[in-house]
What does this fold into?
Amino acid sequence: MYFQIIAQMKKQLAQLDKWLEATIANAELRKFDPNVLLTARLSPDQFAFARQVQITCDTAKLGASRVTGKDAPSHADTEATIAELRARVQSVISYLDGFAEKDFESVATRVVTQPRWEGKTMTGHDYFLEHVVPNFYFHLTTAYALLRHNGVPVGKRDFLGALTQKAPAT
Amino acid sequence: MYFQIIAQMKKQLAQLDKWLEATIANAELRKFDPNVLLTARLSPDQFAFARQVQITCDTAKLGASRVTGKDAPSHADTEATIAELRARVQSVISYLDGFAEKDFESVATRVVTQPRWEGKTMTGHDYFLEHVVPNFYFHLTTAYALLRHNGVPVGKRDFLGALTQKAPAT
It folds into this structure.
């Protein structure tokens, strides 16, 4: 199921890209520079919008990389425009496109660590469910909340995207 | 893995309860009525804080109920205080405590629908990954964002809670 959760993250990243596109369109309509939003914050001691988007991308990218052992592309965190943030999102979607279900066969037994954990480790499984998924949605939703707070017209359906639904029997 | 994802939601609900507890403590310190936050919004056309907490609870409760076919307790959405919201969260944690891994054996083939879907259906699996998980984290994170926006001192570790980490070999 790890692979399917990654596929869902890929879908959510594509939705994020649509919100960024809607932000540019809305800024044109309301005649403001969309890039001022990169430094928008909900609280002075919380990361700004650009960082929220970058961490959303990194959580998906490094999550997939660490639980599979496949190298991830590096990103310099230098985005200064919404257009550059869109390119970052697209780059991670492309990276995730390169995974297949078989890449996730050893997640349960893989040992994951991070520099800031000072030698502590997690199993790939625990890391994925307790760290990657909550962090991914945390930063994704915070980015969304910042756009809503600033009047960008996105709604709940834009958050979820299209659902795999079956039409009623006729 | 559905059962383990539900266990993770239970953990996140316990974290939400801690944020609510911190909100009451912070209100005492700053000398404001914590219950004024129930109507706080990040945007005038987004649900207020109390509703975000209620939907977080309902998404976990109804998600588990619909993919397993087990009845869920009903809640009247009448909470008027932070203390009552805490009771709601605790009630859903107790409900989720009643599930066992075997309850989730038929999720993949179960057919799920909702009144608003006008007869359309989803498999339990698709519903869980595309609807329950993203919605749960969406409303949970929005509730957290509202507290942060209003100066309640919670941080990222309070969002994630304790991680299942192994100490380094000595």
